[in-house]
Amino acid sequence: MEYITLHNGIQMPAIGYGTWDLRGKECVDCVAKAIQTGYRLIDTAVMYGNEWEVGEGVRKSGIQREDIFLTTKLDHRYASYEKAKKGIDACLKTLQTDYIDLLLVHEPYEEYISMYRALEEAYAEGKLKAIGVSNINQRLYDNLLSVCKVIPMVNQVESHVYYPQLSYQKYLQEKGTVMESWAPFTEGRRRIFQEPVLKKIAEKHQKTVGQIALKYLSQNGIIVIPKTAKEERMQENFSLFDFSLDESDLKEIGKLNGGKSLFGWYEP
Ligand SMILES: NC(=O)c1ccc[n+]([C@@H]2O[C@H](COP(=O)([O-])OP(=O)(O)OC[C@H]3O[C@@H](n4cnc5c(N)ncnc54)[C@H](OP(=O)(O)O)[C@@H]3O)[C@@H](O)[C@H]2O)c1
């Protein structure tokens, strides 16, 4: 397992387990299984309606809470300073934990800056170990940077081989923010597992297409949180750190970049 050090010294796992669309007992069992497979970062959100199940999965895994890096996100229901303050306590309660490793403002709501102020205060109080944003483009990020006290540790955005956002990653890195990818497999919007360029490189390294797609992001300093409900894929997606892509691989994969969001979420 590799880690990325956030600007406050906290070590964040370079790969995590995404939980969007996992519900009920399946979610509890998948989270426990993912942790037993080796994942230490678990990504959830109020919006996913599964925070309680994620908390249960962490407990069921048998791994100590302090060895897990738990991320959640506040959505539109908490879109104000006051509401976000309440939202933080609600997340702690639902996840059944004393602290959250990383809390993000889920989307650029009109009130995202005042929500972030509530996160800064909870960070100072020790309820949150790290704070950040999600789906924030460069203009909104710069606005936040001009007024915040704590530089966001993470910005979680759409990022995959068809829209990796590598120049934005570099920009964020220079400012002290780590980029985290959501939908590293495009959430099914593209036939990524049939992509000829990735297939050729996968054969060369005796790896799978999924591992090549994740490695491309990881090798560019981006944290990945693929979701799978299948045990064998949990293992597959996690096995990223015993090989490297070479310059020619990176160049070939770079040609897949269409320069456009597949979700249409990042218009300036
Ligand atoms: N901040 C945000 O706004 C935001 C938005 C979206 C997602 N997220 C987070 O990012 C995480 C990842 O994104 P995502 O879940 O949307 O999409 P994703 O990880 O790109 O894709 C998940 C899909 O890929 C399949 N899959 C996974 N591993 C595979 C493999 N090795 N081979 C073949 N198929 C594979 C899964 O199917 P099976 O389950 O059947 O394996 C599932 O259908 C989410 O779970 C969530 O935690 C955040």
Structure description:
The chain has a single domain (3-190, 221-242), classed as Alpha-Beta Barrel (TIM Barrel), CATH 3.20.20. The protein contains 10 helices and 10 strands. The protein has helices spanning 24-37, 51-61, 81-95, 112-125, 138-147, 166-175, 196-205, 209-219, 231-238, 247-254, and strands at residues 3-5, 11-13, 16-18, 41-43, 69-74, 102-105, 131-134, 154-158, 178-182, 223-224. It has an 8-stranded parallel sheet with strand order 3-4-5-6-7-8-9-10. The chain has a two-stranded antiparallel sheet with strand order 1-2. Helix 1 packs across helix 2 (51-61), helix 3 (81-95) crosses helix 4 and helix 7 packs across helix 8. The radius of gyration is 18 Å and the shape is globular. The model has no long low-confidence stretch (mean pLDDT 97). Bound molecules: NADP nicotinamide-adenine-dinucleotide phosphate (NAP). Residues 18-20, 43, 134-135, 156, 182-188, 193, 210, 225-230, 233, 236-237 line the site of NADP nicotinamide-adenine-dinucleotide phosphate (NAP).
Taking pLDDT < 50 over at least 5 consecutive residues as the criterion, the unreliable ranges are none
Ions, cofactors and other bound molecules:
NADP nicotinamide-adenine-dinucleotide phosphate
Query: So, CATH architecture?
Result: Alpha-Beta Barrel
Rg, nearest Å: 18 Å
CATH topology: TIM Barrel
Count of alpha/pi helices: 10
Estimated structural class: alpha/beta
Number of beta strands: 10
Can you tell me the number of structural domains? Answer: 1
Q: CATH top level?
A: Alpha Beta
The CATH fourth-level homologous superfamily: NADP-dependent oxidoreductase domain
Q: What order do the SSEs take from the amino end to the carboxyl end, as H and E?
A: EEEHEHEHEHEHEHEHHEHH
Mean pLDDT: 97
Main sheet: strand order: 3-4-5-6-7-8-9-10
Overall shape? globular
What is the helix content?
A: 40-55%
How far apart are the first and last residues' alpha carbons, in Å?
35 Å
